[in-house]
Amino acid sequence: MASAERTLTIGGGLVRRHLGEQWAFGMDHARSRLGCCHYDSRRITCSVYLVAYLAEDEVEQVVLHEIAHAQAGVKAGHGRGWFNRARALGYTGGRTIDVPEARAASRWLGVCAAGHEIYRHRRPRGRVCCGACAKDGSRRPITWQDRGLGLIARG
Q1: What are phi and psi of 120, to 5 degrees?
Q2: What's the pLDDT score for residue 104?
């Protein structure tokens, strides 16, 4: 498992190598995504909470994913341009990386009448209908339950 210190070393080195000194690397407190490319501030960040569940090679893949976003540009999304950049950098993953621990630490559990479960860190303010049910035309509302979980321990 990767520590925050090790992640800063890995990420900082990769960002300097591939993006130069005009970009920076740091940690953030996101609970539902591993990494983020902040185009405006020229900064790439990783979640201090979630990298603790990853091996060092997985952290490297997350950083390469975000570096590809920086190189491809804000409009590239996860399209062909981003994908080609990512592969050229050595990224071997897909569009996203699943971290089951992020769901396990979510405070709010939503359930629709069909039994589909949705996890959120904050309770949604308005009415939310099940996205899985919407595929067949149904509009089943989500009922939210506070699971009473605290924050994941800081790394």
Answers
A1: -140, 150
A2: 75
DSSP three-state, residue 36: strand
First-last CA distance in the chain: 11
Name the superfamily (CATH) of residues 4-99. Metalloproteases ("zincins"), catalytic domain (3.30.2010.10)
Whether the per-residue pLDDT at 26 is higher than 90: the answer is yes
Report the amino acid identity of residue 71: Q
Q: How far apart (Å, rounded) are the C-alpha atoms in residues 76 and 47?
A: 23
pLDDT at 149: 67
Query: 8-17, 30-39, 62-71: which range is least confident on average?
Result: 30-39
Beta carbons of 118 and 110 less than 8 angstroms apart: yes
Parallel, antiparallel or unpaired: strands 108-111 and 143-146: antiparallel
> Is 129 strand, coil or helix?
strand
